[in-house]
Amino acid sequence: MQSFPLYQTLFPLLAGVAQGVKALHPQIAAFFEVRQHLFTTLQQQLATVPNNGFRLWVHAASVGEFEQARPIIAALQARHPNLRLFISFLSPSGYNARKNFPNAAAVFYLPLDTAANACKLVALLKPDALLLMRYDFWPNHLLAAKKYGTTLVLAAAVLQPRSAYFNPLLRRFYKKLFHLFNAIYTVAERDTQAFKKHFGYRNAITAGDPRFDQVVARSRNRAAVANLRANYEGRKVLVAGSVWEADEQLLIAAWQELNPRPSLIVVPHQTEPEKIAHLCSLLDERNLSYARISTLPKSFQPEQQILIIDQIGYLAELYSIASIAYVGGGFGVNVHNTLEPAVYAIPVLFGPNHHNSPEAAALLEAGGATVVQQQSELHAALQRLCSNESERQRQGSAAGIFVQARTGATAMVVEYLEGVA
User: Fold this and answer.
1) Burial (Cβ within 10 Å: 0-12, 13-18, ≥19) of residue 25
2) DSSP letters along 105-172, please?
3) Least enclosed by CB within 10 Å: which of 110, 131, 400, 408?
4) Do 206 and 186 form a contact (C-beta atoms < 8 A)?
């Protein structure tokens, strides 16, 4: 059995330091606070869970990584009605978004990675398999699960070229860690070869990203926008999704200069009242008429009014009525989900910060997306797509083919887990 003596010596010391300074750091304090009664709550939840059935533990750092697991979970639940599903998250955003996930026996925060916590958690869960999505490796929990006899599966694995995995001081650590896994399924052949060459893991398999399967499955659901569809029938529609204030400034200015203008639907990433008020103020300054989805009047005129989506739950389906998509975040930390619009075979535009999204870079390479650096470039790209239908269809087709060609990861992972069940 592998061990990590240096990590297991240093981590408790660092955890003690974090406990000591938590009063000065709200995020550290929150980390410990939400885990304060974790085991008591978990024991109560699991007390009524039958011991029979396939027991699957899924761990994801946050909601984005969990979305990669959803098609795998759905496929297993369809084939195993008595699946016992346990879901852990590291981040509050992941836990809060999915704490009521249907048919899960328990959804919880991953405990602090001490040997005692890990052994206690594994004894409670008794998992047949642990499905870890993409990254977020905690050695003590992996070791405890391995010792129990749990099958460890890493899915949607990515090894970014400049990541810490390749640091000469850490490479040996990660090599030992990766060899704890019974199976590793990577997003791309580049990742598979990196596991083999740099870490000696010979059984890595290129499967793709399960999110492609997820977005294809979700694209069939369009009920949320059924009442809007008639308003936009026969019109060119620009949907700006997950936009931040920096996106809004550039987008509104570029759109206002278009001739002709497509109908515009704006979906802010944050829908708090003050964020919506800021967007409305921007539109008022430019004398632009708008309506909110929360108070949409019967007299709404999409050819004259911008539609603001000030409620959650619409974005993925809104792209189904779009002719062009703009995805926000690219003028901030990183672009948001580019697959959600691409699945509908429409051109996708976003800002320059996309380097932490391999799928965005791949979509660009495939010809289904355009990066814009500033307002003038955004205006030019939109004008070209609005006035040149063949170009719009060419880019849209490339985006759609890009997504469809990368489905299938779910079936590969499910087939392996079925052998464990």
Assistant:
1) exposed
2) EEEEEPPP--HHHHHHHHHHH--SEEEEES----HHHHHHHHHHTPEEEEEEE---TTSGGG-TTTHH
3) 408
4) yes
Cβ atoms of 113 and 88 closer than 8 Å: no
Structure tokens at 314: 């619409």
Q: What is the model's pLDDT at position 356?
A: 82
Amino acid identity of 29? A
Q: Give dist(CA 67, CA 367) in Å, integer.
A: 25
370 φ/ψ angles, rounded to the nearest 5 degrees: -135, 135
- Residue 251 CA to residue 396 CA, distance in Å, equals 20
pLDDT per residue as tens digits for the range 194-240: 999 999 999 999 999 999 998 998 899 898 899 999 999 999 999 99
Could you give the 3-state DSSP secondary structure of residue 11?
helix
Inter-residue contact 72 to 413 (CB < 8 Å): yes
**Alpha-carbon span 421 to 418, nearest angstrom:** 5
Contacts of 212 (CB under 8 A, 6+ apart): 339, 403, 406, 407, 409
Residue 1 pLDDT:
65
CA distances from 42 to 48, 121, 287, 368 (A): 11, 9, 54, 45
pLDDT at 401: 97
Residues of the chain with pLDDT under 70: 1
Write out pLDDT tens, residues 153-204: 999 999 988 899 999 999 999 999 999 999 999 998 999 999 999 999 999 9
Measured on CA atoms in the order 197, 198, 201, 207, is the torsion positive or negative?
negative
Structure tokens at 257: 């200069």
